[in-house]
TrEMBL record:
Signal peptide region: none
Domain NAD(P)-binding: from-to ranges: 7-192
A GO term, aspect molecular function: oxidoreductase activity, acting on the CH-NH group of donors, NAD or NADP as acceptor
Lineage, opening ranks: Bacteria, Bacillati, Actinomycetota, Actinomycetes, Streptosporangiales
Listed SUPFAM superfamilies: NAD(P)-binding Rossmann-fold domains
Native source species: Actinomadura rayongensis
Pfam family, one: NAD_binding_10
Identification of the protein by name: NAD(P)H-binding protein
Annotated TM spans: none
Length: 206
């Protein structure tokens, strides 16, 4: 499979790249700096369309700028450019690594709206939730999948185990929602290979 991986040098993106390459997939990394392959501004629709030509899948694992600017404008600009670019290129699939904040912890209650949600993550979480809303509303003609990680994701062990869900936050027996970046990458590449989820959101956790 030919995969364009936008954000291939980040914590999650680098592990997706390693997992996919280890399975024999052809991964073209794309970042703002070009460190892992090609230079790409993910908010530039024409550039996304050009980079996505001939790819079987476009996987996106980008984070907002860390310079203190509001994350929503950047994330939504990237979302619009991705939808337009992938649609124009005719690529097979668009898979976006989103956030956990839009997952439900109770019927009609998102994690980001829970009283104890950390304020430091609120702006980014709501921006990713807005991105999901944008994709659901404007993704005509695009075979998309939005994948939310567990509430806690960090570098760790590749165990080969995970659970899969839909719009609800997955928690373990102790009420914790977590997954290693390595197992999240494994689960994402499994989804690329099996193609179980189309035009919807899924989540992975332990």
């Amino acid at each position: 499979m030919k995969i364009l991986l936008i954000g291939s040098t980040g914590v999650i993106g680098s592990r997706i790249a390693a997992e996919a390459r280890n399975r024999g997939h052809e991964v073209t990394g794309a970042t703002r700096s070009g460190t892992d392959g090609v230079v790409l501004d993910a908010a530039d629709e024409a550039a996304v369309a050009e980079a996505a030509k001939g790819q079987d899948a476009v996987v996106v694992a980008v984070t907002p700028p860390r310079d203190g600017t509001p994350p929503a404008p950047h994330i939504l600009a990237v979302g619009r450019a991705l939808l337009g670019g992938v649609r124009a290129a005719g690529s097979g699939r668009l898979v976006i690594v989103g956030g956990a904040g839009s997952l439900e912890v109770a019927p009609g209650l998102r994690l980001v709206d829970a009283p104890d949600f950390p304020e430091i993550y609120y702006a980014e979480a709501t921006a990713h939730a807005d991105l999901l809303d944008l994709i659901r509303a404007d993704a005509d003609g695009v075979d998309w999948t939005y994948i939310s990680p567990a509430a806690e994701i960090a570098p760790g062990e590749r165990t080969g185990h995970y659970r899969r869900g839909g719009d609800e936050l997955i928690v373990d027996a102790d009420g914790n929602s977590r997954i290693s970046a390595e197992d999240f990458a494994l689960a994402l590449v499994d989804e690329l290979e099996t193609g179980q989820a189309h035009r919807g959101r899924i989540t992975f956790a332990y």
